[in-house]
Fold this protein.
Amino acid sequence: MKKNICIFLIFIFSILLCACSLEKDVTALYKEETPLEAEIIIPASFSANTQETIKAVLTQGGNKVENADFVHFKIWKHDGSLKYSMEQAEKEGNGTYTLSKSFDGDGLYYIKVHASNDGSIIMPQKQFVVGRLSESELKFLKKGIQKQEESHEHHH
Amino acid sequence: METKQPNTSLYRTVWRWHFYAGIIFAPLLIILAVTGSIYLFKPQIEQVLYQDYQEVVPRGDKIQPSQQFEKVKELYPDAVVTKYHPGESASRSSEVSITSNDESLTIFIDPYTGKSIGELNDEDRIMDKIEEIHGELMAGTLGDRIVELAACWAVVLIVSGLYLWYPKKKQSLSGILFPRMNKGKNILRRDLHAVPAFWISAGMLFLIMTGLPWSGFWGSNFQSIATNSGSGYPPSIWTGSAPTSSIKTKDIADVPWAAENLDVPISDIQGFIPLSIEDVVMIANREGMHPSYSINVPTEADGVYTLSAFPPKAQDEATIHIDQYSGAVLADYRYDHYGLVGKIVAWGITLHKGTQFGLINQLFSLLICLGIMLVAFSGFYLWWKRKPQKGLGAPKAPQIKNMKSFLFLLIGLGFLFPLVGLSLIVVWLIDWFIIKRISAVKKFLNA
């Protein structure tokens, strides 16, 4: 009897101790996505009224995306006073898509890159500064509220 | 009655275990059956309770969710928005879940006017309380383990009960499939326990086996094993964490908190900013989420927006993780992507909750719950009436080591349900150190 109890105890506690956790690469056993990734490169310093080039470098599953289904740039100013229409980016090769633009005024801007390739659709947006920020823009940034004036058109 | 039954030691042993397990776990099974019966009707009950919060009059266009968030932030300045649930129909309010002062609140917003209709503290949700009793007796982890133990032991009760019920010799179906009404009180009492117990045993076993994957110990281990094998739920639905955003922290726009510092480095301001909630709603529509979905709002810089829908029918379930900066779908798990075990568990859950087949499902489960209550009470009554003046009236204990097959069955169940095994060890230890050594106790328990 005692022997039985001992064997039993050992088994039970070994089960308790190996209380299972998930393996690291368990996601590979299920449906996996290969999301498109975009690096948006904005010139370090902008000045108004000069032509500046904004780049988006697209990668997917570790490879550069050469022929994306579409890459569109949309740029607008924080207060909504300026809204550029959606523009198709130029293909530069090596996964790089660019748009050259001259900005008419200083301020806080946003860019949103709409891109799609191989079933993955992304719309990353970045905040950037042209020239100097106005008082109200600084105030807005300090409030930490991301409220952008943007029309929500469907994009495909 | 007892003299009519075969007086083998195996029969007595099984009876003895059934007897003790029944006396100990019957109260818990009654609690589970009562709370379960109520919880089954959660949709109908909440419909009545929260009607005023949930119904709105459609007029014109809905306002943007971000404006609804702003309204909530006006009302609760220090709140953090954790979840957004767009109304699933034109006449449903939208729900914004927040944490404010360590409390979880749901704010119901009229999406046409943007006005708050009411707030509900999660603590005050009656159905959540019922669920808490059903799942953990309102006693946290300890309660969870007790419920799990009761559920596992209920399996032992079903197995041992079926053995005791199984007709030993050819006899008519009365006393087996229907009670004998005119054979005296003792027979009737026995039949009122054993016959309905047989009828509900399959349903009861079903409720136990579909409820167990929820449990904290057996359930989480079971889910982990299933997920690890590739046949369970994909990770992050039950166990495992959601993917994280691939955007590097340094590329994220800083919020210049240093309020007085006007010379915020521009490079810190320039960077990725999170998607607006409108974009997330747009992605949810694009990906075809079930209208009952909600959006979990990330609170960490590398967190993701999680769209999840667990509607009444298992096959409509979906969980989608979205990079909060790029809007990329990082994981998209529908019912079809579950492994076989995951699909079975998902069906088990919606059947257990009574949502899969609507009212029929609810009524069927209610019938099983009522049956469990009847069997628990009649079993108790049976014991009470048979009980001698002195002692518990338990069947005499034979030597367990003569019962090899029974011992193996118990050990087997102990493996399958480690908590049963653990409790068996405790029973043996108590038996070894107390019952066997104190003659009064031994006599009382008929050991």
Observations:
- Chain A touches chain B through 52 residues (CB under 8 Å).
- Helices of chain A lie at 2-17, 135-143.
